[in-house]
Every structure is written in structure tokens, then in C-alpha cells.
Specification:
47% of the residues lie in helices and 11% in strands. With 186 residues, it is of the alpha+beta class. The chain is rod-shaped and about 105 Å long. 16% of the residues are buried.
Amino acid sequence: MKQENQSEIIAMIEELKQKPQLNRHERRYLAKLENKFNQSKIVTSLPWKNIFTKFFIGFAVLSIIIGLFWYVKSLPNLPPIDMAGHIEENPPSHILDTEMPESIQKHMLEHADGKGKPGILIQYNCKKYNCEKDLIEKLKVLIKKYPENVYLAPNNYDGKIILTRLNKREILEKFVEKKIIAFIEN
């Protein structure tokens, strides 16, 4: 329908509604006619304001979701420094050739070997980082001096050498024996 025809029909319906002599049958017919007219309206122009608003809201929501995803992905992947979610299980040894599960790491932070003083974890990542040829061997020699509560294991965290104890973490980009000893002994 064209805009002028719609206006004429609306005016005619409004005029008929104003007449007090309409009986119930005529009022019902008029209501049906009005409903039919409203349902059959053809939109001649797009509601740009509505479309723009929906697009803007959709874009904003999508931007927030992408931003949150990017933020979470940009956070460094580091070993735990607390005990929340730990299990009462010990690693098979103090020097591991495989990664130590986080739940066991947390238990070691609580107490080494399930009964001793809090543990200290030294982890290295030679998959993402270029390690010196003898890095792992140097770490093993150092760890053997502290067998009671110090553990060595490879990892996939964001750091070449990561020293961890309860509520404390230090990341080293190269082997510095003095820093590792200071972390263990303090």
C-alpha cells in the first residue's frame, strides 16, 4: 500500500470509531478490519534507526567478548603459588623428566613429601625457550644439594626457569645459581 492510501484508511477507521451509533457487530468488524490493516502493512522504508541501534549493540557486545578473550589469552601462563585445589599426592621423585600436574604442585607448596616443610619448585621450559645445552644438568646438580623440599620438573609455562614457593614466584631468563640458591634458602 502506498503511504497516502494507508493514511486514508487510518482516517476512515478513526472516523468510524468516533460514531456512537455503532452496534457491537459493527465495532467487532471495525476491530478486525483494523487488525487486518495493521498486519498487512508493507514497510516502504527500512527503519534505519532501529537497524543502526541493533548493529551498534551487536558490535559492542562482540567487541567486549573479543576483548575479554584477548585479555585472558594475553595473561601469562604461570605455575600456581597457592594451595587451592591441591590433592594429597606426591610426585614420584624430586627430579622429574615429565611435567608435574598443577594439583600436585599445589600440594608440594603446602608441604614437601606430604609431611615436611613447604616445597620449592624449580621448573624449566626448553620447548618455548632456547636453553643452554647444560641447563638441565646444572639444575639437577643444584637440586641434589637440597633433596628435602626442592623439586625440579619441565613445564609448558611462560618462562625459561620459574622458581615457585607458597605465595611467591620468580622467573629467570637464564641460569643464575646465586638467585636460585637465594630463592631456595630464603
